[in-house]
Amino acid sequence: MCGIVGYIGPQQAYPILIKGLKRLEYRGYDSAGVALMNDNQILNVYKAKGKVSDLESSIEKKDISGTIGIAHTRWATHGEPCQANAHPHYSSSENLALIHNGIIENYAVLKEKLQKNGYVFQSTTDTEVLVQLIEYIRVSHEIDLLSAVQLALRTVVGAYAIAILDRNNPDEIIAARKSSPLVVGVGDNEFFLASDATPIVEYTNKVIYLDDEEIAVINRNTGLKIVNLKNVEVDHAIQTVSLNLGQLEKNGFPHFMLKEIFDQPSCIMDCMRGRINVEANNVVLSAVIDHSERLLAAKRFIIVACGTSWHAALIGKNLLESFCRIPVEVEYASEFRYRDPILSADDVVIAISQSGETADTLAAIELARSKGAFIYGICNVVGSSIARATHTGSYIHVGPEIGVASTKAFTGQVTVLTMLALTLGRLKKTLSEERYLETVKELASIPEKMKHVLELNEKVKELSKPFTYAHNFIYLGRGYSYPVALEGALKLKEISYIHAEGYPAAEMKHGPIALIDAEMPVVVIATKNGMYEKVLSNIQEIKARQGKVIALVTEGDEIIANVADLCIELPKTLECLEPLITSLPLQLLAYHIAVCKGKNVDQPRNLAKSVTVE
After folding, report:
1. CB 289: neighbour CB atoms within 10 A?
2. What would the pLDDT profile of 253-298 be if each residue is shown by its tens digit?
3. What is the largest CA-CA distance in the chain?
């Protein structure tokens, strides 16, 4: 949600800021803006509703000079998407310009107080309240900007990542964070600021990740200083990021989403690299080995996640219960934190998030830690908040995911959960050696089988065309395939805006069957496994009511091919690994239907990639 970019150094800031905003477009936004300090110490703020390209067009003939600046893409929370509500926001004197990710929860009370003191607001945002508050404190207390920022941030309730320019100090940016990510890039006599490393890697691979309630004072002459809200200086080690520019480009694909679907064979190989040996007969997760005593002593696992990660968690539940014979609960992180859950030191909480910044998941981690639970994180972004907040964990190593609708992160999460279940199952001796070896070997073969699935892209593209005008879809699956049905339905509604729901196939008779008619497409995951006969019966029930069935079947299946309207044949694999195969054609189906409908598949409306607010 939202994106922050900042620059101070010898170069012109505007081109760097605009390119940075474009790198952050994947996060989701509805307006954009930039603040630049020119050589005459004039603080120019330019804003536009819409895309970064709309911002560029609106300021073509305006003064964009300056070697210090901040820029922002806004995802609306308080106030509709419009130019007035876009960031940056001036203070009343126009001496300060501020950008902000997050939510100031007590903004209404603060706004009322400021209005009584004569402050007039130009927007309906909570962010403008913050910049006015900082100016009010600075003027009324006659203190410097850093001190005013510290006092203001101790007053507000909520989450923030902010960056501020001061017209009276053209050589300094002040930035701060709490519960919203912020990264400082360290270059050669220059500094960069961003919500994540993607806008920075073109210029430097040296970064510092700010922690909660820390403030970075970035000065052209004195360099970087980091302090906390009580003005105690904090030391931070500079980290090296491994992102490269090629990972942030489309590489000839029309959309990032399609590229990332096709990335999956290599991504899953990267995810397994160094964890599954070349003989494919052993899995080693260092996090499990290092904390085996605590993990093996657990009485229960609780997996907390949101969205696509929650679907991966449901698959993880099946894997962990089957391989490790331990009870596993799966919770929406947003509900978990508010329902007063029963937690103890005997519990292990697994937190899953692609970005590692999901606000609800972070709050669930904080709650679980306070109750003494052991926290295992599974995320994609190195150095992210969840990676730092957990006791241990595993990265999925699938590279940056730019498309808002998650694809390779889902299969990466499922892969890590599979390796976790295998490792623990062997240590607990609840998994037979024969089944262990069979599963490890088959898991190692999944990338090649994924490549075979992706060869079906043109077929999926053709069969998707008749469904461009569908208004509803039902997705059905059983066992390991039920979460895949949920994920397939989510992908379709996210990017095509077609209403879609996933159900356990047997539950169709308990309500959804009332929806079946000749206008209702039903996607059924019907691969050959222990549930095959049951799912076949469900397909026949649909056909008896004139429903249109798209079936995912195992190669060579002729029985369902004679019943379903359309079939997609997939390589055979173990039932527990089928989600890694069956999810790909559902991603392609959603993608091609959305493209046929002319939708923006990489940046679907109203959605944000990194959900850093409740």
Report:
1. 11
2. 999 999 999 999 999 999 999 999 989 899 999 999 999 999 999 9
3. 81
159 three-state secondary structure: strand
Identify the domain containing residue 428 by its residue range: 250-454
Q: Is residue 613 part of a domain?
A: no
Which CATH number is 464's domain given? 3.40.50.10490
Instruction: Identify any residues that bridge with 567 across adjacent strands, giving them in sequence order.
Output: 551
As a 3-state breakdown, the chain gives helix, strand, coil percent values, each rounded to 5, of 40, 25, 35
Instruction: Go through the chain and tell me how many residues it has.
Output: 614
* CA Rg value for the chain: 26
User: Does the pLDDT of residue 522 top 90, yes or no?
Assistant: yes
What is the rounded distance in angstroms from the CA atom of residue 34 to the CA atom of residue 3? 12
**Cβ atoms 101, 612 nearer than 8 A:** yes
560 & 419 share domain: no
Domain co-membership, 135 together with 274: no
Burial string for 124-156 (b: 16+ CB within 10 Å, else e) reads ebbbbbbbbbbbbbbeeeeeebbebbbbbbeeb
- Cα separation, 129 vs 106, whole angstroms: 10
For 598, the token pair is 């002319």
Q: Is the pLDDT of residue 487 over 70?
A: yes
Q: How many helices (H) and strands (E) does the chain have?
A: 18, 24
The catalytic residues are 2, 609
Report how many domains make up the chain: 3
Give the helix ranges, DSSP H, for 301-432: 308-324, 333-336, 359-370, 385-389, 408-428
Domain final residue, candidates 413, 439, 454:
454
Q: What is the pLDDT of residues 352-376, one digit of tens each?
A: 999 888 889 999 999 999 999 999 9
Q: Could you tell me if residue 610 is inside a domain?
A: no
Q: How confident is the model at residue 149 (pLDDT cuts 50, 70, 90)?
A: very high
**Calpha distance 310→542 (Å, rounded):** 28
**pTM of this structure:** 0.81
CA–CA separation, 329 and 54 (whole Å): 46
Report the interhelical angle of 579-596 vs 433-454 (nearest 10°). 20
